[in-house]
Amino acid sequence: MEKRGMWGSRLTFILAAVGSAVGLGNAWRFPGLAAKHGGGTFLVVYLLAMLVMGIPLLMMEISVSRKFRRGAIESMRGIGKKWEFVGWAATSNAFVIVCYYSVVFAWVILMFVNSWQFAGMTGNNEAAAGLFSQLTQTTGAVEGYNIPGIVLVCLLVAWGLIFYCIRNGAKSVGKVVKFTVFAPVILLLIMAVKGCTMPGAMDGIKMLFVPDPSAFSDPTLWVDAIGQVFYSLSIMMAIMFAYGSYVGDDADIAADAMIIAFSDMAVSVLSGIVMFSTMGGTGMLGDITASGIGTAFFVYPTAIVNLTGSGVFNAIFGAIFYLMLITLAIDSAFSIVEGISASVSDKFHLKPKTVTIAICAISGLISIVFVTQAGLAWLDIVDNWANSVNLILIGVLECIAIGWTFNLRKVLDEVNRNAKRFKMPFVWFAASIKFASPVLLVALFTWNMISLFGINGGSYGGYPIWAQVIAGWVVSALVFASGFIAKAVIAAKKKKGFVEDEIVWKD
After folding, report:
1. Is 218 helix (H, G, I), strand (E, B) or coil?
2. Whole-structure pTM value
3. Domains of the chain listed by start with CATH number
């Protein structure tokens, strides 16, 4: 590891991984799904899905990448040369995701900067709900390509912050996460205290934690809980391969993965307390939506202007809320770039910083599409296919590659190499990787396809079919073709003297 950056300490790795896993989905999608599925009922199923699928998959990626000391592409090649394309798919899909995630980050910055406007909107729900649309000038459709100057500036700020955080890989990330992981927790606690002291807040808390037994029979509950666990932990996105490759030989992966997973869940629950208490205190429990963007930019602003009769206090509280989202978004954003950078630099023997600059520049240019007036619609389409199609299929392929074509006991031995108080049982690990996880992911994918074709007639969101084909199916095809395209590029480079590393699992 003389040539490879490493985490400065165990705590730094855990904070970085928690920071990556804990993102905007914890703050807005988790509470929305809990509201949709009877609160406590969703929590029970979510915990079950975390134990059955989330934790084993997280351990798998971290342990494999630590063993190979490589990012996703080379780690999957180490599992078997025929599986390298899976690493490329994970890396390419992460590239797609960061192109639009950076824009969501920019929107959060935009709302933070403009949170002072809530001061003049006390009780004015229409004005509060319309602030985001006014600032972004969104059409909600795939038409309209003007770019509001203030949004473009926020995008540049977002990319500047992302690059600054990962400019020196693990070294600079380690310094940043010591602030960005704790800051959102402190801000969430402040908002939770405020929310819980409001009249009606306990109605919201009761709704969040008390299970509704009848909800267990709803298949969408299980689909949403499995999906939330899968999307929340930053697995199958090349991130944990990169972060795992910087982990020291003395790390206790079994214990660290448990800490990361349950920290992620704890922040989700804390976010739920904030959302449910605040919405309960403002009499808006019925307005909580499973749509993350809808909750953060349309619904929650109406709650902000109804918190108190003081416009100034409401504006301050709004600023705290969006600052909290900024601190959540930045970790996830730069971790995605780091995952891509580690994969590509490992594969082509390039300087990581050079690759990081190139990724930020290229994806930054592409992200401009999403800050146009039509950007929200294009983002919605790309996000749906990146998550509902690409991410799930990558997960299935990783489970097949590592669970069925490789010696899974070797992987578990790596997980438990330094385990002290807790060792991952083989039955739990193997049952998850070989059976439960791929079956659950296939079921999730099948449900998504039934919803798309069987229920909605092959159309998503009411957007034009041509837009769905371009931003959805074509992008997905390119993600899974990227490995084969790269293979052709590498073959050409070999003729000019390029030599691939030998990646071997050494016992």
Report:
1. coil
2. 0.96
3. 25-494 (1.20.1740)
